[in-house]
Amino acid sequence: MKSTTFALLTAGLFTQTVFSAALDRRSEGGVLTTLPQPHSQIRLLHQHPKTTTLLTTKRQSTTESSSVQGGAVLSTSSNKKITHVSATFIVPSAKIPTIGPTANNPVGVYASSFWVGIDGVTLPATNSSKCNAAGASLRLGIDIFYDGTFGGEQTPFAWAQYLPRSATGFSNMTITPGDLVRLTASTNGSSAVGGTVTIENFGPGNNDKSANIKKMKALQSASHTFSSSPDAEDGKELPALCQTQASIIVEDFPLAGMPEFPIALANFTRVEYGDVKIGGTNGQVLNLVGGSRKGQAQVLNIVQPPQGGRLTDCSISKQSGKGTYGSTNGGGGVVVCERVVVPS
User: Of 306, 304, 250, 260, nearest to 45 (Cα)?
Assistant: First the structure.
């Protein structure tokens, strides 16, 4: 058993708080890189890690802190509810990072999660916020894994979740790296409670970005509906959504059963979310860039100092012509995230 001590730098004060974690085999600065015992297919805990910030520096003009979320989020006012979010992307392969503190560990465990949904993004609180959009979320995603102790790259895992409830898997879906998938989250009409998520898998080889996805036929599809009835998990009804965030996210979740730290982020190289569609109440179409919602979308990046600093380079670009996968409207942008290591 090996104990690792971390320094927590907070509020600009160079004071140290001892934070210890005992992990079998190998850990990197509070980042789980290997599993403590033999195991089957690993799974992620789709919740924020209990220790999301190992290093935080605050300045007067800006606030730089650890973050487990990258991608983009379109925020709206409380009187303009988001009712529908969908995006299409090619499932990346999970590889060992080649640079940074978690690089080149042949027995390492790495993962990345890619999800689309309504709400669920942690943003700085504002005085005008009457609803905590990070508290409840309707979302679905795909996790990719690399486990050096279990044969390398593992089978991706497709999941659905109504946060704060636990995620559930799409048991009838088979996802492989290179598949083109579309993720869709929609609310239940005018209700702020519950909703339906749908995953469509168009299979490998459908990566011609000039192709129109409307003319493609999904090889597999599955849906899951979350109702407003009391939940079996705790007997309580689902919490209401704020419906103020359209979220297109790459996330560094913790490992199931080990909620303390985010897992070492896999090298996914690049992911590109296209065919983005965001709908609001009364049939309103919202855009990531351009149009009446110009400037409202915010770019996010994963920042984990124990893993080397900033781990993603995300951006939003405006589509032109057919755009990505034939989309010409209903989102107005492409979200791209590349895996990097940039010291923070």
Answer: 260
